[in-house]
Amino acid sequence: MIEIDNVVAGYSAEIDILRGMTLQAQRAEIVTLLGPNGCGKSTLLKTIAGFLLPRRGRIALQGEDVSQIPVHRKIRHGGLGFVPQTDNVFSALSVRENLLVGGHFLTAAACTKRIDELATLYPVLARKMDLRAASLSGGERQILALARALMPRPSILLLDEPSAGLSPKVLHEVFDAIVQVRDQEGVTILMVEQNAMEALRISDRAYVLAMGAVALTGAAGELMRDERVRELYLGGRTH
Ligand SMILES: Nc1ncnc2c1ncn2[C@@H]1O[C@H](COP(=O)(O)OP(=O)(O)OP(=O)(O)O)[C@@H](O)[C@H]1O
Ligand SMILES: [Mg+2]
Question: Which residue's alpha carbon is nearest to atom 17 within ligand 1?
């Protein structure tokens, strides 16, 4: 479970990028963050992960206040997985080596077991286990980035634009992989997406952000029908 309460954060002392952000995500829920370029979506994920520490407000993961805990400690102890917007696999390493990096804090035996589980969950990775990540397609890379973040069995997963640059068919494969994580491992997923309607289709709830705060929130199905969301993302009515 993720609880964000009135969080203020920024990269320099003078400028607040998050200006009182409040939102929640429950266990086994996919929650999507929508909003224009530069509104603070990636900054929010980086703040939850602990790359940035909030100036004010509270961040709780699984009921525990982690507002001032830096990223490496959250990933190690807090059961947090983070897939950043860019550069999310090591191209020069094989698929297996990428997964081993994700399992850095596990014992060798636990790593082997988890790689087997993830290979079963994502057969596309099983077929390419010893190939360099550089040779994967865009969609395969996204699935590898997801699997790497899942290595330590996080209870919370932060995904920054997992479908960026993918064709509609591959986008569906990546989204199916995300749904499997929620359904099979009960992971709480907070996902930033530009493909709003496709993302809402697999989400339970969503938040529309504007200028560092929540502008609109609701069940995913409701937001898909909301005229304001349609205006923003589909250029008006579609029927
Ligand atoms: N490392 C950084 N240092 C300073 N300012 C930053 C940094 N990263 C982002 N910003 C600024 O913070 C604001 C929010 O950026 P952020 O990356 O969170 O937006 P976003 O909503 O994820 O946008 P996009 O949809 O383009 O990915 C922008 O004005 C951006 O210029
Ligand atoms: Mg971003």
Answer: 42
Residue type, 196: A
Is the pLDDT assigned to residue 236 strictly greater than 70?
no
Rounded CA separation 177/19 (Å):
33
CA of 163 to the centre of ligand 2 (A): 12
3-state secondary structure of 174: helix
Is the pLDDT at 23 greater than 60? The verdict is: yes
Closest residue CA from atom 27 of ligand 1? 37
Class of domain 2-234: alpha beta
Here the tokens at position 147 are 């699997």
Which of 18, 39, 48, 160 has the most ligand 1 atoms within 8 A of CB, as the residue to mutate? 39
Confidence of residue 237 (pLDDT cuts 50, 70, 90): very low
Contact yes or no for 182/142 (Cβ under 8 A): no
- Identify the band that residue 71 occupies on the pLDDT scale cut at 50, 70 and 90: confident
**Contact status, residue 132 vs residue 93, Cβ threshold 8 Å:** yes
9 and 43 in contact (C-beta within 8 Å)? Answer: yes
Rounded CA-CA distance 98/95 in Å is 5
Domain ranges, ordered by start, for the chain: 2-234
What is the spatial distance between Cα 164 and Cα 144, in angstroms, rounded to a whole number? 15
